[in-house]
Design a protein that fits this description.
The complex is a heterodimer of chains A (98) and B (338).
Chain A lengths: L1 E5 L5 E7 L4 H10 L5 E10 L1 H16 L5 E5 L1 H10 L6 E4 L3
Parallel strand pairs in A: 2-3, 3-4, 4-5
Antiparallel strand pairs in A: 1-2
Helix pairs in contact in A: 1-2
Chain B lengths: L2 H24 L7 H28 L4 H7 L1 H18 L6 H26 L5 H32 L9 H17 L3 H46 L7 H7 L7 H29 L9 H29 L3 H5 L2 H4 L1
Helix pairs in contact in B: 1-5, 1-6, 2-4, 2-5, 4-5, 4-6, 4-7, 5-6, 6-7, 6-8, 8-10, 10-11
The chains are: A alpha/beta (98), B mainly alpha (338).
Amino acid sequence: MFEIQMGAAGEVVMAGRLDATQCDVALRFLNTVPKLRVIDLGRLEYIASMGLRVFLLTQKRVKAAGTELKLINACPQIHDIFRYAGFDRIIDISRASA
Amino acid sequence: MNYSWLMRAPIALVPVLLFLLVLVHADSYKLLRPRIVLALVAAGTVAAGASYLANIGASALFTGDLTLYARYVSPWIEESLKALVLVFLIRKRQVGLPVDAGIAGFAIGTGFALVENLYYLASRPDTALAVQIVRGFGTAIMHGGTTTVLAVISVTLYERRPNGGLQLLLPGFLAATVLHAGFNVLLVRPALATFATIIVLPLVIYLVFERSERTLRDWLDEDLDSKVQLLELINTGKFLDSNSGRYLQSLRERFRGENLADMLCLLRLHGELALRAKGILLLRESGIEEPPLDDATRDKLAELAQLKRAIGKTGILAVRPLMMATGKDIWQLKLLGG
């Protein structure tokens, strides 16, 4: 189960499992958000390699528009995946506070 | 100014270059850097020069009809020389997938074909335009294609048996040589030979590329998951209770305690580096410029090499089922070293 929606403060909120079957849904949604800055990963439990690609493509689009993407509240496992893959040097990502 | 030459040269040289450009562009993961592709084209030109000399020597010894020589002897010489660079690339894991091996093979064949066609343009300036068309669209593409076939078959076999010997190169080499000889035999009907080459070869290469990219994508997903799980187990201290951990403990009787500790470090380090390599592939696929290799990763690569030395060949063989089961698993770390 994967959910993506707008949060109260204008951020995008993701929840559930971002696997290969949900990447198109996520990317389509993110492409409709005009001034995308922040994605809240607080309730995202799992991410597949295709899911990482969603964030890379979004960062590319956002950067081309002159801003930077920020991922917040990542659980330790997802934060570690970004770190191991070296994507923490490409996208600003922060852990959920304990 | 010889206008005839100006018209013939592009026909003889451009199709194979265009074909190579399409292949490089079609690779979503940009597995081979442009400078490597150019270096391979250059290597192909050297192979063509060596082939010219070898053919002069061999044809002088050949007592039969030269048409027979061209059909049944020269393909062995030419394919062997084109294969030399490829053997090095495959054995050193510089290429690890059908896509990058295929592009590498076609680049070598391109260099070879460019020199061969330039030689024909210079030495037989009055050759009919139709012959240049056959050389440009037929022979040149064939040279790229046969080396691609050799590369794709060989790398597929090494993927299944990463520690296999040189004999794994034989099926690809035989296939390439038979195709080359078949093309030369078909040249009694040059239009058919050219038509067959420009229809069949792109189709085969397209299918190979599509399948290879799908396999790579699946592997990225599966391996990413398994490496993340492995690292999670190690980081949370639960590794020894897992199947992999139990396997490692079963090695106690054969290896000293410090060797086992090194093996666990090796597993962790290999997992982290494998994830970093996958990150590079994903960055390339997304068209994002990858940042230069950081010091931490460089240190980890050095530590990995040091651990491998400490564990020794027998130890590496024992721990291999846990970290390097396929050719791709070994190849991926080259993405960090390159």
